[in-house]
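Following up on my earlier message about flavin-adenine dinucleotide. Here are the inputs again, as you asked, copied directly from the submission form:
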Amino acid sequence: MLERRLPSCDVVHYRETIKPLTQVDADAWAYRTSGISFDWIRVRAGGGRSLVWGGWLLWPEAQNFKDAAAADQPWPFPIEAIATHIRRARNLLNIRQAPMPPHFAAVGAKLGLEVEEKLAAVGPCGCRAFVSLDWRRRSTLRPNRVVLELLANRRGRVTGVSYVDAETGARGIATGRAVVLAASPIETARLLLASPGAAPANAHGLVGTGLTDHLVASYLVLVPQPAPATEPATPMDRAAFVPRFVNLGRKNRRDYPGGFTLELHGPEPLLELGADGIRALGLDPTAAADASYFLVHAIGETLPHPDRKVTLDPDRLDRYGRRIPVIHQAQSDAEPRRARDMEETALAVADALATPGSRIFPLRETLTPGGIAHEAGGAVLGRSPQRAVTDLCGRVQNLRGLYVADASLMPTGLDRPPTLTVLGLAMNTADSLLEHLATGAL
Ligand SMILES: Cc1cc2nc3c(=O)[nH]c(=O)nc-3n(C[C@H](O)[C@H](O)[C@H](O)COP(=O)(O)OP(=O)(O)OC[C@H]3O[C@@H](n4cnc5c(N)ncnc54)[C@H](O)[C@@H]3O)c2cc1C
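Thanks, got it. Here's what our run produced:
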């Protein structure tokens, strides 16, 4: 099976290669949680989490923005306002629409669920997920430089950053006409909170607030038969998507706000989980040669909560002498109801995919946040400085020369994988910065 895929798509090799990227140095990147524990998945390497991501590209929908307004967490513009930016981001990616696997179409028909083809950014070999570094053009990457603090002058203009070289320990300063923060929500909030020069950005105590992440209900269906040899050649193809079907106008009303979507994967040979992955299911890797598996993930929206936020630990410092971030987690009363609905739906899909002799394994606690790496918020964009850290251009309020271009900008995390929306917002920031540079409005 694997030989058939080599050299273009060696999944085991790909998984082994990316594994070290998510195992960050715990002393250098320490954090702690408060309330509910939170597994903060980070990639500390140029390119960020797009080095390891699954490549799912989902267009945000008007309903997502309406949910946010109903929950008093409004997006400052309708989706149409960033549609052009999202389209441009999408056009830059190497996008492929996977064919619809017939088994997922059949499950959709059986359960009355709409199932759509996966739209994915794929790497040149057709299976490696898109890597944002592929996108780099006339820029210079300075590897190993860990930004410690934002620097600002007395007139409230950000002038650069201080950094430490993670390999040599040498410290330095980089200056420029503007600084763009794209360090991911928790780290961007930390940098804003940790930099005395950036204090005006937090005049209203908003930095670090509005943090969201997805709830995820995940099931693995172990199938005693091998993955059919007639399946399409790459795992990017053996996938499909179920768009949101709850709380759409008057249709399928639920007793919680927002909604969820489903990602369906498989069948894959069980051996592709690797020996440790197979043992984690309580199975013997040597007896797995003929088995295959499906994955069903329900991805659910959480709306901002006043107690879900990032602050800095007053006492604990990391190896670079930085105060470590504290990730406060809290849940609304609606979240257990949403989680239950997601579990029931995902389990119904898993059941429908099972063949005689199959077993279904729950893979995680749905209500335990983290571990999915879809966090958003913390430096939210908006119209009013009283309610938002940045303006509509991603420019940090009350400071000059400082911009944000990552998932921190999102007022809500949506009910679907977020990256296409993040890229659209980053495009918006980039365009605004270019215009401000050209017109001297910095
Ligand atoms: C395994 C996995 C699969 C995923 N699959 C999908 C998917 O299929 N579809 C989807 O839409 N989303 C997916 N995601 C989520 C997606 O990758 C994130 O939502 C997205 O990358 C967030 O972008 P960001 O710019 O906010 O943060 P990041 O991508 O985390 O980028 C932050 C960057 O900042 C750097 N950095 C941080 N702090 C510092 C510092 N102090 N100094 C210098 N550099 C710093 C980091 O090294 C990193 O390069 C996935 C994530 C993971 C982990």
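One observation from looking it over: The longest helix spans residues 419-439. Hope that helps, and feel free to reply on this thread.
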